[in-house]
Amino acid sequence: MKWQAWRQLREFPPLVWIILFGSFFGRGTYFMVWPFLAILLYEKFGLGAAQIGLILSASAVGAAVLGFYVGALSDRHGRRSIMLAGTAINAVAFAVLAFAESLPAFVAAMSLCSVGRAIWEPPSSALIGDLLKERRSRELALQLRYFLVNAGAAMGPIVGVWAGLSAQQSTFGLTALSYLALNLAVIWAFAHTASGRVARQRRDRSASFRGTLRVLRQDHKFLVVILANVLALFIYAQMDSSLVQYLTRVEVPNLVALISSLILVNAVTVILLQFPLLSLMSGMPANQRIIIGLVILAAGQLWVALNPVHFVLGWLGATFVVSVAEAILFPTMSVQIDQMAPDHLRGSYFGASSFYSLGWSLAPLAGGIVIELWSGSILFGAMFLLCGLVWLLYRYAEGLSRPDWSEVKEPALLPPVAANS
């Protein structure tokens, strides 16, 4: 198994490695400051929990719809230009965040961050599938991408705290530079590598957006899976901004150090356990792995709900449990999309997975409101119960139908010249 994995890694083309390491460096600089954004908004503008939640949520809601449309566009027009647009928008957005002084400037820049991420994610994930034809190689690449994202998330807060950068607005400038470097690397790879030239030519102009929508509406199993995963992201995301707001309001001592420790526990747990768990569960179907991860996620939510506010080891332990769930759930969700998507609609299917960000983006708003009206314990107790609904949706999806992929083709809608070219 190990020798086979090394052989698969050696066969990855340069463009795949650029996507993988670009994810590492981009996410590392991103996590130097982004998790502390709630603190910046609280201290810089004196905003309440619900107001911060609204800002964090509003910055990402529109990006979910955009990501779906962008994924479909990449099937029809190719991945290159869309990926370059995503990295350029991210670079501009984080540069603005580094110098923003007014609340409207913060909100605009954060919206651009969400837009850039929505534009980059679907085509880059689909491109991995385009370039790696073997199913096991694609699964390994998607797992490795998530691993490197978490490695960056682990190193970002450590470097930020060590260099005195955490919760410092100027650190966003480093993130802008990392995305600029990624943009240049993508330009080079598409122009100067064999895999890049092949990927540049790959497009399917016979796939219409209307036809894609029709097929997706008929893929009842996929739609229910998307809904279930949106809710799963909504539950998990409460451990991000909502937990930070909860700990901020109850005035936990050494707040920045605690948050950095929670981020470190999360990332290190995923880094150390992701591939051992993958090996342990290699014989299981993707849905079964997700159910196991969901049960562990529910246990983590219950732990957070019951943990005494000043019991620091309890917060670390709950974060570890939720991180184990993450190590199982999120890489498997990407593998699940790759397995469900037909080759000619891979971008559209990964684009549809952008709706996951609805769960992520609505979590700060809902969490902030519940924290202000009731308490953090009630919020995470409700998330424990919501895990049961996600489990029911997965069970329901198992018996649902899937469409005839050929219906996405609409030759009659194409001009005669295009049909003969």
Automatic annotation (TrEMBL):
Signal sequence coordinates: none
One term of GO molecular function: transmembrane transporter activity
Domain of life: Bacteria
Keywords, comma-separated and alphabetical: Cell membrane, Membrane, Transmembrane, Transmembrane helix, Transport
Subcellular location per the Swiss-Prot or TrEMBL entry: Cell membrane
One cellular component (GO) term of this entry: plasma membrane
Domain Major facilitator superfamily (MFS) profile: 15-406
Database matches in InterPro entries: MFS, MFS_dom, MFS_trans_sf, MFS_Transporters
Residue spans crossing the bilayer: 12-42, 48-70, 144-165, 177-199, 220-237, 257-278, 290-306, 312-335, 347-367, 373-394
Entry membrane topology: Multi-pass membrane protein
Family matches, as PANTHER family: MULTIDRUG RESISTANCE PROTEIN MDTH (PTHR23517:SF2), RESISTANCE PROTEIN MDTM, PUTATIVE-RELATED-RELATED (PTHR23517)
Name of this protein: MFS transporter
Organism: Parahaliea aestuarii
